[in-house]
Each structure stands twice: as structure tokens, then as C-alpha cells.
Write a structure and sequence with these properties.
Two copies of one chain form a homodimer. With 435 residues, chain A is of the alpha+beta class. In chain A, 19% of the residues lie in helices and 26% in strands. Chain A is built from twelve helices and 26 strands. In chain A, a hairpin with an 8-residue loop joins β10 and β11. Chain A starts with 31 loop residues before the first strand and ends in a 6-residue tail after the last strand. At the A-B interface, β7, β10, α7 and α11 of A face β7, β10, α7 and α11 of B.
Chain lengths: 435, 435
């Protein structure tokens, strides 16, 4: 998928809100979501343009698409469309790009298929089969390692293996879903016996989520050079984490209840096609070891890094009550990742493990090298030892009930139109009664 | 679900093979599977009786069932039936038990719905949403711990938390599926740099798999006293493991590629109803700590332990060529588990994590206290240091290409009919070319 006419920065749409400076969804973006208008029953597939949604199930949109693609777009999830493969995705993008361009004759007809985003509610973009979470930021791994193992922050395998673990697919939820503070076993420092309590060290993690469009057969690894053909697109992902539960449970098999109570993703899947202009060379240091052969690809070396600007902001209950705006906590980029998305996919399937259409791969917290580029409170507050003071005067070591965390993301590069990822929002609700 | 007429040990069936001594599927069992006859296209739901299968999609079987249950049984997976809940499961069992009893007038009609197991091939019993693997045998945890940490075999959290990690749902496969030896990163002892190679330490693990019939809403834990209402039944589960890949990859987030290339389960789901006679008091030691409140239930203390005899046998390529019978490697029981199935479910949902109909929970390797009760080669050969010598004269530290591992399981108790779980078989195939 080389750059093509859909990436032309001079394109404008007859949907005027798409032409606004800093719009997340200009005509160069065209991300997919599953939506309905408030009060409606059935979810359907839509494409964002400015402040509107093209309802792909609407008869006037259906006529733009090849019959097989139109059929796949009538489902209440992206799986069928994703299973058609990258040529079908690109064709759909091209058709929509052309139909939405300023001056096109379809404008009158397609107008009827537009819905206002402000009246929409979103479903998960796909039926997620398996969810895997990676650990691709060496800055995050080192920062967390320093808290746990000051003498050996980075484990010996880190620069060789794209470390990952399996997450929980059932509790992946779309932006806006409530996040109930988890209750769990915690062993207070020095105590003999653990207690069950609401987590006191609830955190967010700023990640990208990769939506797998095409899978592979069990036993058939995906070579790194083919990996991007399997990527439908990306979303923002907040890997909520209960640090106190994690510390007590994670040996020897890794995080479990500390992570699986909720994972929030943004509703709009920004496609691999739309992200093409924002790929760049690996950001590794010159003295880092060369990856093993199955993780090494000349194309990936030149274009494997994806530069998505990422930020997390907080709006506490008190800030909301006083009409304050959210305050930014983290500001980073996915270009800092040590492992690329292609390497994640090649590694995941290198043993024959089968990816499936609709699988979700998290990148892990995308912390950068500078302190404000840390993608979690654990890092920003040094394990809670140095709480942040917000502009409101409130302090935060970890999240309090009522805190709303909003992830945002966008891509910007000289010579191309800026595109946005929308947002992934979750508000912490008071813990329920222990089960 | 108390004991009832379906458990009567004196019941006999007009399907005569069900009355054979040591039959896995007498009329007191009635497990469910998804099957088709060789050469057919569509999978459907069946119930085992002796050496036959009652095809629940057959018109003469459909008339036995309530309309809603019959509708759910027309699917090519058990999910719809499981979602109807425990009363529907028990009703189905009762109807089938009555219709299959010796002397019943339905015999003539139902005969037409019988298929021979010998001509059947099986699908996965359910669409598996998420797969979680626990670590419930303290003997397994201690044996593995002794290899890794001689000074501290059992970690401090073990007796407090039912340790678990998320596994890979997409690579769960049914008995008979090929298991390709995985290729992966391994760091040979003393080497600076890892290499990519076919695993040299491929192992099996003897486990039970719990099929979740009813889920819970996110944020709503399942109290331990209700847990069994959510269990549809159990299967045999072989958690194939590449120990050399595992050793290099598992820090800090747990096993990943060392486990997710394949997990084999048996096709027949033996229901919670059928297992009722084989539950017994916890097997914990008197000086073990009392579980925390959410893991403590008087009923579970008295009946939480499930006594399924489990065994693993090997048939090497050479044994097969010479016409030898399989040789038993492991012989254990799930009654040795430190944590019960109800505790697994209560813990998994205690933080609000939602289980979904069709989820699979592995128990972890069910090793017992005596050396031959070890449920993996890792334990039987002390990390490969003391290879086994088979009756054929061959030795095994870990599995060789062509080795077939067969898990078997059954329940036996004075005053009740013996019931079997069938088998979970997998044969190791030569590694493919690295991806």
C-alpha cells in the first residue's frame, strides 16, 4: 500500500467540518467505528468525516461499495470487512475518499447517509477474539524495572524478545464505559497476611491497540515483511492497572486480576492506510543488538516506527464541579517504542500461534525518554512516592474515585494532513462490595 | 443440583455398549460434544451413550427436548445450550437419561438418532471466548519452584491466591489435532546471545479444563457459593509447553509463546451434574492458612474437591511401528488440587472481571504428592536431568517428534457408576521452517 491520492494534503471535503484546522477526521483519515444514534437499537458500521459519520449501511452509501464489501459493512462489527483483506480495505477507502471530496456530484445523495457524531454512541469496533499486550517501550520497562529491581532495571531478554502476555478480551470496553475500581488481595508492606480491599494504587497506561484484520493458520508464522498486510488499523488503549494487586499476584505467571477488570479503547479505528505517511525509521540506539533474523526486515527498519502523538489528561470530580478543563499528565509518542508493530506480529506468530481477524494487540505503555513522556502514574510519581500537584491544587499519587482519564492521539508531519485518533475516556467509579 | 435418579448406579441403557464394565459413557454420564460423521460438512451437538452418539439435531431426538432447548441444540457449538443455565442442562440430562433407559418405549424411535462414535470426528465443543489457566496443584508449583528457586520453591502468595494467567483461546484445539513443535528464541546456558531453534524441551501438562456455562456481568463478582451454577462441565486439557522458550521469555510478564502454540482438549464435556457423586472435602493440610472470606464457603469445604483420576500415556513412533501399546507416564487425580474450581471462579471474578459463556478455565498441571503423580515431564525427569527409560528401551527427557501423548480421565467411587472423560490426544509433528 504505497502513498496514493487519498493521502493528498490538499484534498478538501464537502463535509465542511472535515476541513477545519486540527480536525481529527479530515478526508485523509476516514477511520471506521461501530455506532448507533442515541435511542436506536442496532449498531452499524460508520466512517468518520469531520463531525459526521457516513453510515455504511445506508442505501446511498451502499451504492458506493462493491457488493461483497457492502455486504460485510452491514454487520454490527468490523470483522467481516476486516476478513476481506487489505485490497478491499484500500478500495473502500478510495471509494469513500472520492465520494466525500469537495465538488463531487455524489454529495447530494450521500448527505442522506450522514449522522452527527454528537448524537452517536459507540460499540466495540470488532468482536475481539484474543487480546495480547506487549511491552514495547524500553523507557517504560526500565522505569518499572528501576522500581522493582534497582540493581537490574532491564531484564536480559528485553532487547531480544518483544515481551508480551495474554490479556483478557471480555473486559475490553469502548470509550465512555464505566471503570469500577477493582477490589482484590493486597499485601501491605511488612504484613504477614494479605487483605482484601479496594485497590489504592489504581493507574492508567497510555497505549496503542492494533486491530488484526487478517489472521494466519495455526502453524504458519507471518513473516515480518508481510506483517502490515495483517493490520487493519489502530486505536487508543488504556490498560487500567491496579499496582497493589499486581505486586502481590504477579509472581510467577504475570499480571492477572490487576489488569483484567477493564481495558478501554477508542471507538474509531484509524486504518493502516491512513497511517502510512507517519511511519519512519526505527528509533533504536546504535549499540542495541541487531534483532534476530525473524525480527529483521530492511523495510521495517526504514518505516517500522509509527509516530502517533499520545497524551493522557485527567479531569477530577472537583475540577468537573468547578468547570475546569482537563489537565495533561502524559505526553508521548509511539515512535519511542523499541519494538515495531511488524516485530510484534512476527514474534507472536513465530511459534505457529494463530492470530484471528478481530484480535487486539496492545503496544504496552508508550513512555518516552523524558520524564513528562512517562505513560503512567507509576512512572510519573515514582511508584507513588512523589505525588503530582494538579493546577487545581489537588494531588495525585494514583487515581481517585471520580477521576476521568482521557487518552488522545494524533499524527502530524510536514507535507501531510494532520489526522487524529479521537479519544478513549474512562471514569473511575467507587469499588463495589467484595464478591 | 442434588443427586437424583440420573445418578442411580443400577440404571442400564438399551444401548448395550453403555452397560459394559469400564465403559466411559454409561447412562450415568451423558457428556456433550460437537461432532459430525467423517465426510459430512456440518458439525452438530451430540450426547455420548456407550459407543454411540445421540444426534441432538435429529428429529427423533428433538422431540425429547423442550422447544427452547431443542433450538439451542441445533447450533454447531454448545454456547447456546450453555447460556440457558443449569436448570435447562439438568432438564436435558433427565430427558435423555429417561429416553435411553433399558425398556423404554422411545428406544425404537431414538435408535434412528444414534451415530457410531467410531465414525465421528469432533469440533471444539464451544466457541471459546477467553482461556485462563490456573496453577492449582501445590505439588506442581513446588516441584517447578524447586527447579527454579531451590531456596524458595513455593512463593509467598501461593497459599493465598489461586494463581493464574491468561492463555490463548485461538490455539485451543480438539483431540486429534496436530501439534507442530514450536520454534522460538532460546538462550542456551552460558551463551551471551539467544538463538532461534525448534524447542528441545517440549512437554505435556495434565490438566482439567472447566467449561463456563453461564457468565457474569462486568463489575459483578460471582460469590463462591454460586460458582458451580456457572460450570457446564469439564474436559481433559493438555497444556503443551516448550520449557526452553519459557525459561527465556517468561520474565517479567509470564509464559507466552512457550504455551500459546497449542492446547489440546478432549471433545466430550462431562457435565457438572454427572460429576456430582465425585466431589469430596478439600484436601488441604491442617496447618494451611484459612482462605480469605471470598474464597471460603462451608459447602465448598465439604464438596469442593473433584476426584477425577487422570493419566498421560506416550506412544512413540517406534512403539507404534512395532505395534506396542501406549505406556503410562503420569497417573494422578484432580483431588490433589490446593484450590477448588469454585475458588478459581470466585477469584477470577472478584475484581469484577466478566466470565462469558464458552470461556475455558484450565486447572493447571494436576500433580499429586507422590513422584509418579507428577503431571509433566519437567517434574518426572527433574528438569530433564534424569530421563525416563520406556519399556521399549527408548529414553525421554522431553518429547520427540512422532510422540503421541494421550490424556485419559475417569471417576470411580463405591456406590456409583464409573464415568469416563474420553481422551485428549496430540502427536508432535516436526517443527516447520522458522517464520
Amino acid at each position: 500500500m504505497p502513498l496514493n491520492e487519498t493521502h493528498d494534503p490538499d484534498l478538501r471535503s464537502w463535509v465542511l467540518s472535515a476541513n477545519a484546522k486540527d480536525a481529527d477526521f479530515p478526508i485523509q483519515n476516514l477511520p471506521f467505528a461501530v455506532f448507533r444514534l442515541r435511542g436506536e437499537g442496532a449498531f452499524r458500521i460508520g466512517v468518520a468525516i469531520g463531525e459526521a459519520i457516513v453510515d455504511l449501511s445506508h442505501p446511498h452509501a451502499v451504492t458506493l461499495l462493491e457488493p461483497q464489501i457492502a455486504g460485510a459493512c452491514r454487520a454490527p462489527a468490523l470483522n467481516d470487512l476486516m476478513a476481506l483483506g487489505p485490497e478491499a480495505w484500500s478500495l473502500t477507502r478510495l471509494s469513500l475518499s472520492r465520494a466525500l471530496r469537495a465538488g463531487r456530484s455524489q454529495a447530494d445523495r450521500l448527505q442522506a447517509a450522514l449522522c452527527p457524531q454528537v448524537e452517536a454512541e459507540y460499540g466495540l469496533p470488532a468482536r475481539i477474539g484474543d487480546y495480547t499486550d506487549f511491552y514495547t517501550s524500553i523507557f517504560h520497562a526500565s522505569a518499572v524495572g528501576r522500581l522493582l529491581r534497582p540493581d537490574q532495571p532491564l531484564l536480559p531478554n528485553y532487547k531480544w524478545i518483544p515481551i508480551a502476555y495474554h490479556g483478557r478480551a471480555s473486559s475490553v470496553c469502548v470509550s465512555g464505559s464505566e471503570v469500577v475500581r477493582p477490589t482484590g488481595q493486597v499485601r501491605v508492606t511488612g504484613a504477614e497476611v494479605p487483605v482484601v480491599m479496594a485497590s489504592q494504587r489504581l493507574d492508567y497506561e497510555v497505549e496503542l491497540g492494533v486491530m488484526i484484520g487478517l489472521g494466519n493458520a495455526r502453524g504458519q508464522p507471518i513473516p515480518i515483511g508481510d506483517a502490515w498486510r495483517h493490520v487493519f488499523g489502530v486505536v487508543l488503549l488504556n490498560d487500567w492497572s491496579a499496582r497493589d494487586i499486581q505486586a502481590w499476584e504477579y509472581q510467577p505467571l504475570g499480571p492477572f486480576l490487576s489488569k483484567n477488570f477493564a481495558t478501554t479503547i477508542s471507538p474509531w479505528v484509524v486504518t493502516a492506510d491512513a497511517l502510512l505517511p507517519f511511519r519512519s525509521p526505527w528509533g533504536r540506539a546504535a549499540d542495541d543488538p541487531q534483532p534476530l533474523a525473524y525480527l529483521l526486515d530492511p523495510q521495517d527498519r526504514m518505516t517500522g516506527s509509527l509516530d502517533v502523538q499520545l497524551e493522557a489528561s485527567i479531569l477530577t470530580a472537583a475540577m468537573r464541579a468547578r468547570g475546569h478543563l482537563p489537565e495533561r499528565l502524559s505526553c508521548t509518542s509511539s515512535r519511542h517504542a523499541y519494538w515495531t508493530i511488524a516485530q510484534m506480529i512476527a514474534h507472536h506468530t513465530s511459534n505457529g500461534c494463530n492470530l484471528v481477524t478481530g484480535d487486539l494487540l496492545g503496544t504496552g505503555t508508550q513512555s518516552g525518554p523524558a520524564p513528562p513522556e512517562a505513560g503512567s502514574l507509576l512512572e510519573l510519581t515514582f511508584g507513588g512516592r512523589e505525588p503530582l500537584t494538579l493546577a487545581s491544587g489537588q494531588t495525585r499519587a494514583f487515581l481517585e474515585d471520580g477521576d476521568q482519564i482521557c487518552l488522545g492521539g494524533w499524527c502530524q508531519r510536514e507535507g501531510f494532513a494532520r489526522i487524529g485518533l479521537g479519544s478513549a475516556i474512562g471514569t473511575v467509579a467507587r469499588a463495589g462490595t467484595p464478591g
